[in-house]
Amino acid sequence: MPTMELRAYFDILRRRGWIPLLLAGLTLALTLAVQRPWQPRPPAYALGLSFSVGVQPRDPAGAYDYDGYYTALASEYLIDDFAEIVKGSEFAAAVSARLADQGIVVPPGVIQGSTQTGSLHRILQVTVYSGDAEQARAIAAAVTATLTADAHLFMPRLLAGQGAVYLIHRGEAAALGPSLRQRLDLPLRVLLALLAGLAIAFLLEYLDDSLRTRDQVQALGLSVLGEIPRK
């Protein structure tokens, strides 16, 4: 019985295999026409920055400070807060204004779109992306200056007079190659189109009530008197 089922599947593919092939071919052609992978892609650069936040503990007379526990805890929370602050429009506007003072025009929206943040082991990480290496360096320098010099403007209650943001690592503007998503985009599109075409082919076969083989006629309880050969 399994042999007969496999033979039936191959028969379906023989008769309707053009559907997945056509769909995969159209997907391939349209993707190539739109993406044009043979053309050189514009350059892209990334520059990474790492910051730590230091908070000076208050030392009220005669009070126990838990050996700096709450100071360390406050610094950890501030890292998470600054990861969100750097994404905001006000921080982007401050960086844009600092760049404008240097004669470099970069709108705040561009800065927001080219800056990503995160935290790792209580360290604030900022990555600047740009299509120009010099612009990436300029934005990174302005981000660094804004964080280290003006952090108290964004967190005045915790940083004013008792804390600061420190730059602990500044990377170089590194050229970025195509991402894994970009490399897999075309083959995944073709594969999905092929699978969708197979699903359509088997659905059409399921909806088709034509009788084509001896087995289909006998499955209805009918006797076969004769069969027209394919050739």
Verbal overview:
By secondary structure, the protein is an alpha+beta fold. It has two domains: 2-38 and 180-219, no CATH class; 45-175, Bacterial polysaccharide co-polymerase-like (2-Layer Sandwich), CATH 3.30.1890. Helices cover 56% and strands 15% of the residues. Strands 1, 2, 3, 4 and 5 form a five-stranded antiparallel beta sheet that branches. β2 and β3 (123-130) form a beta hairpin.
Summarize the structure.
The protein is an alpha+beta fold and 231 residues long.
Question: What does the secondary structure layout of this molecule look like, with pairings?
Answer:
Blueprint: H1 2-16, H2 18-35, E1 45-55, H3 69-85, H4 89-101, H5 108-114, E2 115-120, E3 123-130, H6 133-154, H7 156-159, E4 163-170, E5 174-175, H8 180-207, H9 214-219
Antiparallel strand pairs: 1-3, 1-4, 1-5, 2-3
Helix pairs in contact: 2-8, 4-5, 4-6
